[in-house]
Amino acid sequence: MIKILEVQPAAAVPGGNIFIRWAGKELQPFRRPQVRFGGMAAHLVTVSRDLIVAQVPTEAAIGEMTLCLDGQESQSVDIEIASVLAANLHPVASPAVDFEGNIYTTLSGRRGEKVPNSVFKIDPQGNVQPFVADLVNPTGIAFNGRREMFISSRHDENIYKISVYGEKSTYCKGMGVATGIAFDRDDNLYVGDRSGNIFKIDKKREIFVFATLEPSVSAYHLAFDDQQNLYVTGPTTSSYDHVYRISTSGAVSTFFTGLGRPQGLAFDTEGNLYVAASLAGRRGIIRITQQGNATVAVSGNNLVGLAFAQDHDLYLASTDSIFRMNSDWAGRRLP
After folding, report:
1. Which residues partner with 53 through β-bridges?
2. Cα(96)–Cα(322) distance, integer angstroms
């Protein structure tokens, strides 16, 4: 009998690669197994006597995966497949979720490109509506403790405060190539200038250089842990990049090394860090424990960020879409 022994990872965005360890039948020349997701055949990237790499079909919506060969079929294994929530966008960083469960993302465009509507609001039912107009190259989005929205622009070096009606006002200027933003517990705002600075802006709008890092080729991305350490990613010209941890006093250390093009990041409720990146050539969302153990948690291409919601939903941003999946797949075991 054909048997699936292991699947890595247990979750994917359509188009992502799943690695399948299997056993039970010798491969014969010109005889290839078939991997099916909800009855839909997957493209096989590579096949050997104990490992199959299968690409989740772009139309797949059901994650019941089986392996078939010469009339034999394996047990069914559940794979969590993300669904498209909104398309025809251009996120360049993580989406943001407000206190009512609405998701915000961008149609950022090329550097200096002005589009009619550049920030969109997606309600929990998946309804998409324009939210902010006349904001060029919006990049990072963050909420403070008073539920106010702020957005960075990598075009004009500004940080904008956004009203509940989508109206913008300038909050601070001169932030360099302003990309990732995040608030600490005391509502101080931190801004990543991809040329090398992490700025801290206090509630009086006084600006300090909080830390200095190697310049990024695209953007910095920021997130705080429960101890108020600031974590920062930013792709460089290296293919072996770092996740930095910056203490409350501004001391910089390397939390993890070995990611390819790390971008958006977020923490789950257990303190694990998730990063849109590649690990050992496998692209997707990487889970890194506080002990520094890294695994691919979600397989997917062109992912730039993620955000957890209070209802256990996980939102993923690719270069043109927002996906939704339930985050309870973590720790799933094979039957």
Report:
1. 19, 46
2. 11
Mean pLDDT for the chain overall? 93
For the four alpha carbons of 171, 174, 189 and 98, in that order, the dihedral sign comes to: positive
* Beta-carbon count within 10 A of 239 CB: 12
SS3 assignment, position 328: helix
pLDDT tens, residue by residue, 177-200 = 999 999 999 999 999 999 999 999
> What is this structure's pTM?
0.94
All structural domains of the chain: 3-81 (2.60.40.10), 83-329 (2.130.10.10)
pLDDT, one tens digit per residue, over 239-260 is 899 999 999 999 999 999 999 9
Residue 328 backbone phi and psi in degrees, to 5: -75, 0
Any bridge partners for residue 286, and if so which? 275, 296
Cβ-contact 8, 296 below 8 angstroms: yes
The residue type of 319 is T
Beta bridge partners of 47: 52
Nearest Cα to Cα of residue 321 among 303, 307, 297: 303
Half-sphere exposure of 100 (CA within 13 A, CB side): 9
CA-to-CA distance for 313 and 285, rounded, in angstroms? Answer: 15
Query: In 10 A of CB 131, how many CB atoms?
Result: 21
Residues 6+ apart with CB under 8 A from 28: none
- Taking Cα atoms as reference points, which of 294, 269, 270, 271 lies closest to residue 284? 294
- Cβ-count burial of 233 within 10 angstroms (0-12 exposed, 13-18 middle, 19+ buried)? buried
What is the 8-class DSSP label of residue 327?
Answer: G
| Mean pLDDT, residues 145-174 taken together | 96
Q: Is the distance from CB of 221 to CB of 179 less than 8 angstroms?
A: yes
Find where tokens 């890595």 sit.
Answer: 8
